[in-house]
Amino acid sequence: MEKVTARDIAMMIDLSLLNPTFTEQEVVDGLNLAKEYNVVSVCVRPCDVELANEMLKDCDTKVTTVIGFPHGTCLTETKVFETEKAIDQGCVEVDMVNNIAFTLSGEYDKVEADIKAVADAAHAKGALLKVIFENAYLNDEQKVKLCEICTRAGADFTKTATGYAPSGATIHDLKIMRANTPERMQVKAAGGVRTLDAALKVRAVGASRFGCTRTKTIMEEAMKREAEGTLVLPEVTDDMEL
User: By percentage, how much of the chain surpasses pLDDT 90?
Assistant: First the structure.
């Protein structure tokens, strides 16, 4: 079995600080945790981007925010404005919510135009784009269609969920998303990755990031297993749960 390191796990973590009830102190605590474990990214609410950029300016952790969150149904022009503003404030990645209503209606030309407009805005300012599918509401055919649309539109990541739908990431969905996107495009698991074992399954099926609200627990366990020589990727089957 393939061994990984605790650093490998940290480089998969987008520490999530999106809870709408978080106080400023809770956000500060989360940002300090991200610095402590040097995770790859922190995903904050748009109102917290400037704070995050100031606190993380002397470390390698990236600042990320969400666009059109959590329903994806705002105007494309609004998403573009949000994207440009967030990047100007310090974000180097943005996670936009696909227009779920258009997707369910089969209005794929509108979906693609929406994603492409945000991708172009992000890339023009040197940032990366993740597209949140919200798979809880979609069938497999719709998930594959979104993978194809994201590929044409120039997205950098596909992402399973917002974390605010009835369900989040699954092994089944991660495999679909990895199988139907080019190698250059990364896959992010979001919603339900709460343990180190779940993170290892995510990595084993080809996803490179996961949204995380349990950073301290996962990283402490990863460091413990690395020291023991037992931090390895599992064999993953479709019927496994995260």
Answer: 98
Mean per-residue pLDDT, 123-134: 98
> Annotated catalytic residue: which of 79, 143, 188, 201?
188
For residue range 163-201, what is the model confidence (pLDDT) as tens digits?
999 999 999 999 999 999 999 999 999 999 999 999 999
- What is the SS3 assignment for the chain? CCECCHHHHHCCEEEEECCCCCCHHHHHHHHHHHHHHCCCEEEECHHHHHHHHHHCCCCCCEEEEEECCCCCCCCHHHHHHHHHHHHHCCCCEEEEECCHHHHHCCCHHHHHHHHHHHHHHHHHCCCEEEEECCHHHCCHHHHHHHHHHHHHHCCCEEECCCCCCCCCCCHHHHHHHHHCCCCCCEEEECCCCCCHHHHHHHHHCCCCEEEECCHHHHHHHHHHHHHHCCCECCCCCCCCCC
Report field, pTM of the whole predicted structure over 0.70: yes
* Active-site annotation holds for 159: yes
List the catalytic residue out of 62, 79, 145, 159.
Answer: 159
